[in-house]
Amino acid sequence: MRVVLTGANGNLGKHIQAHAAFDCLPVSRSDWDALDEAAPGEYQALIHCAYDLKNDLNVLPDLVLESNIVSTGRALRLCREKRIARFIFISSCSVYGDSSNSVEDKPCSPVSMNGYTKLFNEELVKSFCGTNAIDYLILRVFNSYGGDDRFSVVQKLISCARNQRPFTLLNEGIAERDFIHVDDVAKVVCAVAGMPLKNEIINVGSGRSVRIIDLLRAVEEKFGKISVVAAQRPGEAIYSRANIGKLRQLVGLQAVDIFDFIRELA
Q1: How far is CA 173 from its chain centroid?
Q2: Phi, psi of 121, rounded to the nearest 5 degrees
Q3: Which conformational region is residue 17 in: left (phi greater than 0), alpha (psi within -120 to 50 degrees), or beta?
Q4: Residues in CB range of 134: below 8 A, 6 or more apart
Q5: How many whole angstroms separate alpha carbon 178 and alpha carbon 144?
Q6: Residues spanned by CATH 3.90.25.10 within the chain?
Q7: In three state form, how does the secondary structure of 163-199 look?
Q8: What CATH number was assigned to the domain covering residues 2-144+180-204?
Q9: Which residue in 82, 120, 151, 189 is deepest, having the highest Cβ count within 10 Å?
Q10: Are 251 and 188 within 8 A, CB to CB?
Q11: How many CA atoms lie less than 13 Å away from 127 in the CB half-sphere?
Q12: Could you tell me what percent of the chain has a pLDDT over 90?
């Protein structure tokens, strides 16, 4: 199997390349035009990881929408033009919003711009692929960490501890999140990419929820006391955990335990 991988220079993209048993063509922002030279039928699948997490939609809306929505449209059109039969979209648990019910076939109610953007992409993928006879997989990834992570609350806690900077703790840290190591996400992506699945949505998480305050205590146990700035965010979702019933039927994943990960940090 030959696969096009967008977002190849990102954290997840690098880990997918490390685990891929298929022939992978890595594509970064500067490489898109090279895809015009691909022969129809040369690639069997496209994994779309490209996504801008660095820029703020409220500051640079044109750049963020170009990266996060227009790039999806471009990738879909490429599939049609180059007869790529399968499209795998990396989505997010943010599409569920505040709901604790993360069963894949439930209606989604996002509350953040990231959630709305991911959900729009999902609907675009389903509509385009349905019209153009392209099989799709949508993988809703929960809170990834590890690797070259620059954005997760896990990395922020570790960075604050190592650099003796204050950490902003929202709502006393009572919120619970499902954390999954980026290496485990990559293993799942590579595994399902080779399976005969059609038009499926699959949660990718550990199936376990962890309180932010407990993560803070674990990082403090490893690195020492962290200066905490308390803040309130009334709209913050309190509980989020991946329902991984469907994932378990497909992949025998033994997810990295986040507390083991913290304890083993250098």
Answers
A1: 23
A2: -60, -40
A3: alpha
A4: 76, 79, 80, 84, 85, 86, 87, 128
A5: 9
A6: 145-176+208-241+256-263
A7: HCCCEEEEHHHCCEECEEEHHHHHHHHHHHHCCCCCC
A8: 3.40.50.720
A9: 189
A10: yes
A11: 8
A12: 86
For the stretch 175-188, pLDDT in tens is 999 999 999 999 99
Residue 52: is its pLDDT beyond 80? Answer: yes
Find the length of the chain.
Answer: 266
Model confidence at 219, in pLDDT bands (50, 70, 90)? very high
Where in the chain is CATH 3.40.50.720? 2-144+180-204
Question: How far, in Å, CA of 200 to CA of 178, rounded?
Answer: 21
Q: What angle do CA 80, 195, 183 make, to 5 degrees?
A: 100
What is the signed CA dihedral for 148, 150, 156, 161, rounded to 10 degrees? 50
Q: Which helix (H) or strand (E) holds 16?
A: helix 11-19
The span from the CA of 73 to the CA of 88, in Å, is 13
**Whole-angstrom Cα distance, residue 212 to residue 222?**
16
Tokens matching residue 121: 């992409």
User: What average pLDDT score do residues 1-22 get?
Assistant: 96
Q: In the chain, what percentage of residues exceed pLDDT 70?
A: 100
Give Cα 51 distance to the centre of its chain.
9
Indicate whether this model's pTM tops 0.90: yes
Which residues fall within 8 angstroms of residue 192, CB to CB, at 6 or more apart? 88, 137, 139, 202, 250, 251
- Assign residue 41 a region (left: φ > 0; alpha: ψ between -120 and 50; beta: otherwise): left
Q: Could you tell me which residue, 248 or 235, shows the higher pLDDT?
A: 248
